[in-house]
TrEMBL record, chains A, B:
A GO term from the CC aspect: nuclear chromosome
Pfam families, per the entry: TOP6A-Spo11_Toprim, Topo_VI_alpha, TP6A_N
GO terms classed as biological process: DNA topological change; meiotic DNA double-strand break formation; meiotic DNA double-strand break processing; reciprocal meiotic recombination
Annotated source species: Capsicum baccatum
Domain of life: Eukaryota
Function: Component of the DNA topoisomerase VI involved in chromatin organization and progression of endoreduplication cycles. Relaxes both positive and negative superturns and exhibits a strong decatenase activity.
Domain annotation Type II DNA topoisomerase VI subunit A all-beta: ranges: 193-229
Protein known as: DNA topoisomerase 6 subunit A
Length: 414, 414
């Protein structure tokens, strides 16, 4: 059988690969990474109160399950006493609309302002939503007492007659996060998992200790419930956040994480909540810098921004979902010429791509970083994009053996 | 912190759950499963030669990398000598068209017949494809010598100028599988991974030993390259093949695999090649019966059929990709009434659903199993479908605590 010890020789074209000769010994590159790591460990993540916004903006927090339960119970007591005093009941629900969102540049993420609306049971226009809210509070309370995790889809199916369609129960679930002041995962409602992780990381998943250096090429599936993830330990110097599965596979098979100690993580495209939470937890607990490897197109940068600054429809939870200070390692628009990516491996941008690129140029989180603006301007100007896989034109292992080591050596991140 | 030992009490409505009272002690159910396991171990998987078709049908095999390499090298010698003798060169390429496919009921899968066509370099209509074929043979040979795995996307990017678009390199790659007579994974070209596995299984992935009982709730990502998977060991009594992620999560969190020893696997929807190969390998090496838990809709049955009989466009590889004798455990159309799934949790079938259902009734692999035909007829007649999650209407853990145990107890699979 074929096994990892059997690689007979490197690609035939090893020596002709562009920039191969520029590579310094690994020890030199490792020194660079150690410096990067200590600077990341020294930087502090700001909170709403640090920037004086804690009274005008709201945020949810990861709460232990007992606290969620008692929060729901005290809400129930308030409702009961309101009813007993002849006043019916209502909820005060934080608004999650765009008008109530704010990008805070000091925090480099989108947060929710403090506008709320009243959801009254005794009003014909809000009675349905108030009923759904109460029902979902009851279901979440049940999740707390039995301490199990379910998906949003499971929740919907417990009372299809009332919820009618899943967007209704999903929306109210987000409302309840804001009302209780906790994250959706604290409510024990989790999203389907998509991400995988491999490399120099150990952590516990639901009580089992996982060693991510011993996960073969497939990696470990990122658990859907972050509250059962703990005990993170690592001797990595950085986290490598990869957009695509194919690049993850290449790096995993080549055990890139052993040559330049790192943790490699991917959500296989659009970041899901579980992967975002996992990345943030790693960054926070291990104090590691995060370097992102995404396609050189507007969506690559967009994906980077979701990890970094959050998505608009979950802005109330941006504090828990976002990972500050992600560096854009590659593939950057300027890399296309710099690394002499052949013309035929570049793709023309579509009208939609160009529009998305121009829209991104208007976004605060891009504008904040002049070097990113410059890269994005270059992309829109040249109207060219390229996938990570375009590097395969120099040999399948060019990514792991030349491009990434050189990027790290040159500290070529923004 | 919340942990698995902290479940304080079962769902409040435990005792009212329908059919809960019908459940016998676990030991009785385990005895049923042991009988199922021994009957699965006794059954033999037929091959083309068993049914006298080995001369008129063709199949590919999993070949070790050295054999793939020497096969390509002897092909190159033949081409060179053909050129030297002044005759140019051509490939004989097995046809993969629908007209060359055959459903063999004894094998219960789709196979490829023996028609071939000539792809001549000296002919203006085939020169392009012959060139692409030669180029991909060269690239695969390079993969053999360095013994690394790449994706189809990587392959495309090595020569965009020639391939023009990925469908062309993908198609020729399948041709090369047929020419060389090996599976696509034997060519070291793998698909992106999607599946996860959890439960009573140990296996090695790229040299690392994986214990799937210690993978928390997230499970282990199924490796993209089956040839680096080995040393499978298990004390499971059956394999539970699950269509959806949410059901997988429920069973994984509840550690269902410890109560009724099994291996739980899902491809999260449409089965990908890696998961299909992995399932087959488990079935073959461990001699375990496979029970499928899919949605009660035409797509659920379609997914089951892809695992069982293969997809049409990869019929040349059906022998390696398919898992024989998968039992349809649930959710079956007859379960909707039997388990009293509330009306509001059933969904009306769309016109397209009904058409897909009727098309399935014409398929050989459905017709072969009269009990399946009956179920499918019922679905099309009632025009109702339901997802696995519909069981959540009886409580989130109804699936793992009542529905599945009862199904196993009653040997209610088809």
């Amino acid at each position: 059988m074929a096994d990892k010890n059997k690689r007979r020789r490197a690609d035939a074209d090893s020596d002709n690969r562009p920039f191969k000769s520029k590579l310094k010994p690994d020890a030199v590159i490792l020194q660079t990474l150690k410096t990067l790591k200590s600077s990341a460990a020294a930087s502090k993540t700001l909170t709403l109160s640090d920037v004086g916004l804690s009274s005008t903006c709201r945020e949810v927090a990861d709460l232990p399950i007992d606290e969620v339960q008692s929060e729901i119970e005290s809400l129930a007591y308030r409702i009961a006493s309101s009813i007993l005093s002849g006043e019916g009941f209502s909820f005060s629900v934080p608004s999650r609309s765009a008008a109530n969102q704010l990008y805070v540049s000091e925090l480099d993420r989108i947060v929710l302002k403090d506008k709320s609306s009243v959801r009254n049971f005794g009003n014909v226009s809000t009675v349905r939503k108030a009923t759904i809210t109460l029902r979902i509070l009851q279901l979440v309370h049940q999740l707390c007492t039995s301490n199990i995790h379910v998906t949003k889809r499971d929740l919907f199916y417990t009372d299809v007659k009332l919820f009618q369609d899943q967007t209704q129960s999903d929306g109210v679930l987000d409302d309840i996060s804001c009302i209780v002041g906790c994250t959706r995962s604290s409510l024990n409602v989790v999203a389907a998992e998509k991400g995988v992780v491999v490399g120099r990381l150990m952590f516990s998943d639901n009580g089992d200790m996982i060693d991510c250096t011993k996960m073969g090429m497939g990696g470990k599936a990122i658990p859907p419930n972050i509250d059962r993830v703990g005990d993170m330990q690592s001797d990595a110097l950085y986290i490598l956040l990869v957009e695509k599965d194919a690049a993850f596979m290449r790096l995993s098979e080549d055990r890139f994480y052993n040559r330049f100690p790192c943790i490699i993580v991917t959500a296989k495209g659009q970041p899901d909540v579980a992967t975002r939470l996992f990345l943030r937890k790693m960054k926070m607990e291990l104090n590691l810098p995060v370097l992102a490897l995404v396609d050189s197109d507007p969506y690559g940068l967009k994906i980077l921004s979701v990890y970094g600054c959050g998505s608009k429809n979950m802005s109330y939870d941006s504090g828990n979902l976002t990972t500050p200070d992600i560096k854009w390692l590659g593939i950057r628009p300027s890399d296309l010429d710099k690394y002499k990516i052949p013309e035929q491996c570049r793709l023309p941008m579509t009208e939609q791509d160009i529009k998305t690129g121009k829209d991104l140029l208007e976004e605060d989180f891009v504008k904040k970083n002049p070097a990113w603006v410059e890269e994005l301007n270059l992309m829109v100007k040249t109207k060219q994009k390229a996938e990570i896989q375009a590097l395969s034109s120099f040999g399948f292992q060019y990514l792991s053996e030349v491009y990434l080591p050189l990027k790290l050596q040159e500290q070529d991140w923004l």
